[in-house]
Design a protein that fits this description.
Number of strands: 22
CATH superfamily of the largest domain: GAF domain
Structural class: alpha+beta
Strand order of the largest sheet: 3-2-1-6-5-4
CATH architecture of the largest domain: 2-Layer Sandwich
CATH class of the largest domain: Alpha Beta
CATH topology of the largest domain: Beta-Lactamase
Radius of gyration: 35 Å
Largest sheet: 6 strands, antiparallel
Distance between the termini: 71 Å
Strand content: 15-25%
Length: 666
């Protein structure tokens, strides 16, 4: 349904003559696709610096204009991120829209970093919006952004045409041609039409279109009229940047020469050429290529000709961009149908093996892929792997994984190992003809293996097998490759999350809890004690003589002291106590269910034990000073208690008190 709705919207919006019409069509498409929704669209008005209502469906919004930085819509547009609000009542700056609204989706419409407007989609039904609704709204927003920019460009070009002081014949011709161009969908036919117009209608002697086939592809001669141009000349002007063509490509500006004999930048490939014009073909900031027009007479490009060529180059850029966007949207929709269920199912899975098991189950379900497996790569150089997920109609057992992994090891890791070692896709139409194939399933006749990689690391190989010969075509390669890329990103993301969570909670040097974790636990303990009337104490600790160790023996020696002291503190407390490195040579301990007096006795005992342990570096003995604060005697706010303990620590140090707790009783 999503695909049909999007394609129908693309078909309809192609007929839109104004931005407002395009917005109304988008709002109607969202209302038709998303259940229980009441969508509206607010367009950014740069003049008033506000969001103005231009389209709505099914209701009249309570807000028609939103000043800058007010409400959810402005926040969404400024961040450039879609916002799903499950409960409107919890949003302080909600502006009246749909009466009785329960939830809302806000989707920014942005095109190449230009902020255009915001979809506001509200519903009176709680929990009405699904991830599919959010995805569909984002897709419509991307299409609408492109449409609005191109409508504005078309309108500016039309205004320019109407205002130029050219003949009625050229005004009529350009308006007619521009409308024809915007309706064309075949790229090759369009380029030939541009060249014919320049050569047959405008009567220019030579016309060349140097363009990229894809958005980031190299420049090639795609269409021309007049004298053929040699390969050397093409290399010189396009690759080497010579001539007026090279100058236009470097500067991004149009170049007009009315006498080539007087221009040192002119590249001579035809001595008859006396005038030359080179115009960049762009859409927004993207350069598609250049239009080169040559004349066999001097003075060929006066004001009128220049304006006409600028208009035509502008139209060409917009049409190429439109065609590229439409092709990409159609391609994305085709792939989306195949991959949506799998990716949606595994995207939120934090366990890597569970993610792989669900992937192979869904990929095996109802497809020609008789056996689907994911191999975790243990060694990229050798291709050593371990099967961690597999399905041939039903999940495979751990015993199966072990047995098949053993077979692969004996056979040098087979095709999956080769795909991992070389980091390439392998499509083997007949496995019996492959010298490195290892028979995991006796029914397999063809096999497709795709590395699961991300940012230069191979995590695994997605392997699909079929009992049909030559089963995997280009479409299969495309689908499995895209899925493998998603799995690689998810795999890397999950590994990063695991590392980040560990690093976020632990001090990397001492392996104690870090300051952030300590304050989280302190806040939780404060809330618990406030609720149940419990007590706790905090001890701030500062190492004595640590600076001397660092200054005299260097930071490596200081690091060893910190590690030993941290281990000492950890061994000296209960399992329920929290020891953390606060920073530098400072530590902090949280003692649940412990009052001031008991905390003082614990710290005195710990200091005596440390003295007996004689933690020394050469002749320097490392001890500690401390300060204690207790809940609720010294305060009922966790952060304030830390401050009290810190002040008592430094008061004690200043008074040269060696024993913890002396003179610092509350």
């Amino acid at each position: 349904m999503e695909r049909n709705t999007v394609l129908e919207y693309i078909r309809m919006v192609d007929q839109a003559g104004t931005v407002e019409e395009a917005c109304e069509m988008a709002v109607e498409a969202i209302a038709g696709f998303t259940r229980f929704s009441n969508p509206s669209f607010f367009l950014l008005n740069p003049g008033s610096d506000s969001l103005e209502l231009v389209a709505h469906h099914g209701f009249t919004p309570g807000t028609l204009s939103i000043p800058r930085s007010e409400g959810i819509s402005w926040r969404t547009l400024e961040k450039g991120e879609t916002a799903l609000i499950e409960d409107i009542s919890k949003v302080d700056d909600y502006l009246p829209g749909l009466e009785g609204s329960c939830c809302e989706i806000n989707v920014p419409v942005v095109w190449r970093e230009r902020k255009i407007g915001v979809f506001s989609i509200e519903s009176k039904v709680s929990g009405a919006f699904s991830p599919d609704d959010v995805h569909f709204a984002n897709l419509l927003a991307a299409i609408l952004g492109s449409v609005i920019v191109h409508l504005e460009t078309e309108n500016r070009l039309s205004e320019s045409l109407r205002s130029q002081e050219s003949t009625a014949r050229y005004r009529s011709l350009f308006l007619e041609i521009s409308m024809e161009f915007y309706s064309m969908t075949d790229r090759g036919e369009f380029l030939e039409r541009v060249v014919r117009m320049l050569s047959e209608v405008m009567k220019f002697d030579k016309v060349y279109l140097f363009l990229r086939e894809t958005r980031n592809g190299p420049l090639h001669l795609r269409a021309y009229s007049g004298k053929d141009i040699g390969e050397k000349a093409i290399r010189d002007v396009v690759e080497e940047g010579r001539g007026l063509t090279g100058k236009a490509l470097r500067t991004g500006e149009a170049v007009f020469c009315n006498d080539t004999s007087k221009d040192p930048d002119f590249y001579m490939d035809d001595e008859r050429t006396l005038s030359e014009a080179v115009l960049p073909i762009r859409s927004g900031d993207h350069l598609w290529g250049v239009l080169v027009v040559d004349e066999y007479s001097t003075g060929a490009f006066e004001r009128e000709e220049r304006e006409q060529l600028r208009i035509l180059a502008g139209i060409t850029g917009v049409v190429l961009d439109n065609m590229d966007n439409l092709a990409r949207i159609r391609e994305d929709l085709d792939l989306m149908e195949r991959l949506h269920e799998i990716i949606a199912s595994v995207a939120g899975e934090r366990d890597i093996r569970a993610m792989c098991r669900e992937t192979v189950r869904l990929l095996n379900l109802g497809t020609k892929y008789n056996l689907v497996q994911i191999h975790e790569i243990l060694d990229e150089k050798t291709g050593e792997s371990m099967i961690i997920a597999g399905s041939h109609g039903e999940p495979l057992s751990a015993e199966y994984y072990k047995k098949q992994t053993s077979l692969l090891r004996e056979g040098g890791w087979g095709l999956t190992g080769e795909a991992a070692r070389k980091r390439i896709l392998l499509n083997v139409p007949d496995v019996q003809k492959s010298e490195i194939y290892v028979a995991v399933s006796p029914m397999t006749l063809s096999e497709l293996d795709v590395p699961i990689e991300f940012d230069g690391k191979v995590y695994g190989v997605l392997s699909v097998e079929s009992k049909l010969p030559d089963a995997f075509q280009e479409e299969d390669e495309k689908v499995v490759s895209i899925l493998a890329r998603h799995l690689g990103a998810l795999w890397a993301h999950n590994e990063l999350l695991e590392r980040t969570e560990r690093q976020a909670m632990q001090d990397p040097l001492t392996a104690l809890w870090n300051r952030r974790f300590f304050f989280d636990r302190l806040d939780a303990e404060t809330s618990r004690c406030a609720r149940y009337g419990c007590i706790f104490s905090i001890v701030m600790i500062d190492l004595r003589n640590f600076k001397i160790v660092n200054d005299r023996f260097g930071h490596p020696a200081g690091d060893r002291v910190l590690i030993e002291v941290a281990s000492f503190f950890q061994r000296s407390v209960r399992e329920c106590d929290v020891v953390a490195r606060y920073g530098g040579d400072e530590f902090v301990i949280l003692f649940p269910e412990t009052d001031f007096a008991e905390a003082s006795r614990i710290m005195e005992r710990m200091e005596d034990n440390l003295k007996r342990q004689k933690l020394c570096v050469e002749s320097v003995e490392v001890l500690f000073d401390c300060g204690i604060a207790s809940y609720p005697a010294d305060g009922k706010e966790g952060r304030a208690l830390v401050q009290v303990a810190d002040e008592r620590l430094y008061s004690g140090k200043k008074a040269a008190k060696d024993n913890c707790g002396k003179g610092v009783a509350p």
